[in-house]
Amino acid sequence: MIRAVGSVIVAFVVIVMAINALFMLISPRAWFRLPGWLRAQGTVTEERYSVGWGAVQLRIAGGLILGSICWVAYQLLHS
Q1: Contact indicator for 49, 61 with CB cutoff of 8 Å
Q2: What pLDDT score was predicted for residue 12?
Q3: pLDDT in tens, 31-66
Q4: Structural domain harbouring 53
């Protein structure tokens, strides 16, 4: 039972992280329009990170998150 609950929680966290990362990578401005509970932005502000160098940093972060998810999934499936 505990393992099933843990699996559901892990799946939920991965889905939320993947949604965040996709929006961060594709459009930082759209990412700021996501609901607060889904976005989990911390101290990142729209004024600083929706345009210019801040948007580039947000896109890099999104790419790193997606890359990490893919790498962990690959390792789990091929071990």
Answers
A1: no
A2: 94
A3: 999 998 888 778 888 999 989 999 999 999 999 999
A4: 2-77
Structure tokens at 6: 């843990």
- State the total domains in the chain: 1
Amino acid at position 64, single letter: L
Question: What's the farthest any 2 CA atoms get from each other in the chain?
Answer: 48
Residue 70: half-sphere exposure toward Cβ, Cα within 13 Å: 8
Listed in sequence order, the DSSP H helices in 1-79 are 2-26, 28-32, 36-39, 46-49, 52-77
The total of other beta-carbon atoms located within 10 Å of residue 31's CB is 26
Report whether 41 contacts 32 (CB < 8 A): yes
End-to-end CA distance of the chain: 25
Within 10 A of 62 (CB to CB), how many other CB atoms are there?
Answer: 22
3-state SS assignment for residue 31: helix
